[in-house]
């Protein structure tokens, strides 16, 4: 091709164009010096930074080094033509989102289809007017900047997600550690003292639960026991429950009130754990068993989940109406006393077990829990408790509970 032919194919840039307000970096890949020089001059007058390459291979090197906002590439070039250049760009992880204008002297439909199929975003005819060239370049830059912004936003979101995942993993590890600690302070199953067997099952609604219990020797003749239920569930409820659990330790009670008398324990707990500003509160059942006589004294602050199951007699609930802790600073919690018999079983439970709801919203209920216990009187204590959980899960048709579920069983084995 002679110089006159190249001049005829090159766009006419005789008159100046308006300055561009969104100048960008443009890579111009063109093997014909006159066309490349004319186009570069025009783009520079529009306010753009122009990079030049004389062929496709050189263009790829410049593109990888400079990451231009827009690439204008000629179709017909030696070594690597325009469509092949487009394919190479789309395969390159650093360049694959680049916006490419494929420049050609022929704009037949079949040629345009091939160029688009091989990676071009738009076409620019070498016979295009100055106004069309300006418009296509500006449109290409706008698209390129939008893609870059989306790419940056995606990277930022990915970084944020990774940070959140890291924090979530750390938090879950902390919660698991806290849950392990809470379980470590619960009483171990087995023979608490001679003649008293202990078994329990506990499933918090979340990793940490707020319904806790304790069974411990007070002295050689007395056994103290309690179950507490914190309103709500989760970390906040668990932290409040651990605080009350620490307060209820036998050595603390002996120091504060001189005994583990259930009425006195509840009076002191009511004074020290008032209703919070957010309306959070506890229910609490406390018992003291005199081992030589099997006499059980107990009192309740709004807790209705203690069942006495006897081998030869119908089971019955050891509860009566009372207010939760902290509702009334002057509240008095009346105590009761019963005598247990050999083979009697005492079940302390949180309301999460009997308030488990069916898919229609009907609670399992205390009477169904009582029925589940009654049918397992001859089974081992741990099996009886496990059966109650199985029946509750069957009722609600799922394994997890919406509230903390705990059942503690004590059996007089002699």
Task: Summarize the topology.
Elements: H1 3-9, E1 25-29, H2 33-45, E2 49-53, H3 56-66, E3 70-74, H4 82-91, E4 100-104, H5 109-117, E5 122-125, H6 130-184, E6 190-193, E7 196-203, E8 211-219, E9 222-230, H7 235-247, H8 250-257, H9 262-272, E10 282-290, E11 295-301, E12 306-309, E13 316-317, E14 335-339, E15 345-349, H10 351-354, H11 366-374, H12 381-396, E16 405-412
Parallel strand pairs: 1-2, 1-3, 3-4, 4-5
Antiparallel strand pairs: 6-7, 7-16, 8-9, 9-10, 10-11, 11-14, 12-13, 12-15, 15-16
Query: How helix-rich are the residues, as a percent range?
Result: 40-55%
Report the β-strand fraction as a percent range.
15-25%
How many structural domains in the coordinates? 2
> Radius of gyration over alpha carbons?
40 Å
The level 1 CATH classification of the largest domain is Alpha Beta
CATH architecture of the largest domain: 4-Layer Sandwich
Shape: rod-shaped
Biggest sheet character: 6 strands, antiparallel
Characterization of the model:
There is one protein chain. The protein has helices at residues 3-9, 33-45, 56-66, 82-91, 109-117, 130-184, 235-247, 250-257, 262-272, 351-354, 366-374, 381-396, and strands at 25-29, 49-53, 70-74, 100-104, 122-125, 190-193, 196-203, 211-219, 222-230, 282-290, 295-301, 306-309, 316-317, 335-339, 345-349, 405-412. The protein is an alpha+beta fold and 414 residues long. The relative contact order is 0.09.
């Amino acid at each position: 091709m002679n110089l006159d032919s190249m001049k005829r194919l090159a766009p006419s840039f005789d008159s100046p164009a308006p300055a561009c307000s969104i100048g960008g970096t443009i890579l111009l890949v063109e093997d014909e010096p006159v066309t490349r020089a004319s186009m570069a001059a025009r783009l520079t007058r529009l306010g753009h930074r122009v990079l030049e390459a004389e062929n496709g291979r050189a263009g790829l090197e410049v593109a990888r080094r400079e990451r231009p906002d827009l690439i204008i590439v000629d179709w017909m070039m030696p070594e690597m033509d325009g469509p092949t250049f487009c394919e190479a760009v789309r395969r390159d992880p650093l360049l694959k989102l680049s916006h490419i204008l494929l420049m050609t002297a022929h704009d037949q439909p079949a040629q345009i289809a091939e160029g688009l199929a091989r990676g071009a975003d738009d076409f620019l005819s070498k016979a295009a007017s100055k106004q069309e060239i300006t418009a296509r370049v500006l449109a290409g830059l706008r698209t390129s900047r939008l893609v870059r912004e989306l790419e940056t936003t995606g990277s930022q979101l990915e970084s944020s997600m990774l940070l959140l995942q890291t924090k979530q993993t750390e938090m879950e590890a902390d919660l698991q550690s806290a849950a392990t600690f809470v379980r470590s302070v619960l009483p171990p199953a087995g023979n608490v003292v001679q003649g008293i067997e202990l078994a329990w099952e506990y499933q918090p609604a979340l990793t940490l639960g707020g319904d806790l219990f304790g069974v411990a020797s007070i002295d050689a003749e007395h056994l103290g026991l309690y179950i507490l239920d914190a309103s709500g569930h989760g970390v906040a409820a668990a932290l409040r429950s651990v605080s009350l659990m620490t307060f209820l330790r036998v050595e603390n009670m002996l120091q504060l009130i001189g005994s583990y008398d259930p009425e006195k324990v509840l009076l002191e707990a009511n004074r020290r754990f008032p209703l919070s500003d957010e309306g959070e509160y506890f229910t609490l059942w406390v018992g003291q068993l005199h081992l030589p006589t099997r006499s059980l004294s107990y009192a309740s602050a709004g807790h209705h989940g203690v069942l006495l199951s006897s081998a030869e007699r119908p089971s019955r609930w050891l509860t009566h109406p009372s207010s939760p802790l902290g509702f009334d600073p002057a509240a008095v919690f009346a105590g009761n006393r019963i005598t247990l018999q050999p083979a009697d079983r005492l079940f302390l439970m949180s309301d999460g077990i009997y308030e488990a709801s069916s898919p229609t919203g009907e609670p399992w209920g205390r009477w169904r829990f009582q029925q589940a216990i009654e049918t397992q009187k001859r089974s081992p204590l741990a099996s009886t408790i496990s059966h109650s959980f199985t029946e509750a899960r069957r009722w609600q048709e799922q394994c997890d509970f919406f509230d903390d579920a705990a059942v503690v069983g004590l059996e007089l084995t002699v």
